[in-house]
C-alpha cells in the first residue's frame, strides 16, 4: 500500500527513477542518527544528463528550474532507497543545497533553485519547508546545469 508521500508523488504525476549509482569514490547517502544526507544529484533522466550548459547562457531560467526539479526527484529516489522504500519515514526536509552552473554576471540562482524547493513543499507538505543554500559555480560534473544535495530527518 502506498503511503502519503507516494500518493503526493502520484498526484503530481511523478514516477521515481532507479537511484543513480555514485560515479566516483563516495556513497549516494549516509545516515547518522536520524539524519539522512544525500549526495548531490544532477538532472539525470533515463541515464542521460537532461540539462547541460550554463543557466543564463544557453540554458533559460525556466529550464534551470526544471533541472532543479529533476535533481530533487532524483534526491527523493535516493531517500526512498535509504528508507527501505518507505518515504513516510521522512519527518522533514532539513536542508537543500543548490549549485547552479552559470556565468559571473548571472544573479538569479535562487529563482532557479525554487524548482527544487517548490517541489519539496509539494511532495512533503509543511515538512518540505527547509533551510537552503544556493550558489553559482563555473561548471558541474558532466556539464550539468544544476546539482542539488539534501539533508532529511527520518524516523
Percent of residues in β-strands: 25-35%
Measured on Cα atoms, how large is the radius of gyration? 15 Å
Overall number of structural domains: 1
Tell me the strand order in the biggest sheet.
1-2-9-7-8
- The top-level CATH class is Alpha Beta
The CATH architecture: 2-Layer Sandwich
Amount of helix? 25-40%
Q: Quickly give the structural class.
A: alpha/beta
Q: In CATH terms, what is the fold-level topology?
A: 60s Ribosomal Protein L30, Chain: A
| Average residue-wise pLDDT | 97
Count of helical regions = 3
Shape: globular
How many individual β-strands? Answer: 9
Largest sheet: 5 strands, mixed
CATH superfamily: RutC-like
Q: Segments where pLDDT lies below 50 for 5+ residues? A: none
Task: Give the topology string: H per helix, E per strand.
Answer: HEEEEEEHEHEE
N- to C-terminal separation?
19 Å
Amino acid at each position: 500500500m502506498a503511503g502519503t508521500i507516494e500518493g503526493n508523488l502520484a498526484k503530481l504525476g511523478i514516477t521515481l527513477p532507479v537511484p543513480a549509482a555514485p560515479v566516483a569514490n563516495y556513497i549516494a547517502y549516509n545516515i547518522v542518527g536520524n539524519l539522512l544526507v544525500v549526495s548531490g544529484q544532477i538532472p539525470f533522466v533515463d541515464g542521460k544528463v537532461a540539462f547541460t550548459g550554463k543557466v543564463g547562457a544557453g540554458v533559460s531560467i525556466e529550464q534551470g528550474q526544471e533541472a532543479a526539479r529533476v535533481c530533487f526527484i532524483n534526491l527523493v529516489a535516493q531517500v526512498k532507497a535509504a528508507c527501505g522504500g518507505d518515504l513516510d519515514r521522512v519527518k522533514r526536509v532539513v536542508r537543500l543545497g543548490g549549485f547552479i552552473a552559470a556565468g559571473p554576471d548571472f544573479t538569479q540562482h535562487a529563482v532557479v533553485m525554487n524548482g527544487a524547493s517548490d517541489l519539496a513543499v509539494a511532495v512533503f507538505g509543511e515538512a518540505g519547508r527547509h533551510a537552503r543554500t544556493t550558489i553559482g559555480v563555473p561548471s558541474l560534473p558532466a556539464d550539468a546545469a544544476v546539482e542539488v544535495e539534501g539533508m532529511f530527518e527520518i524516523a
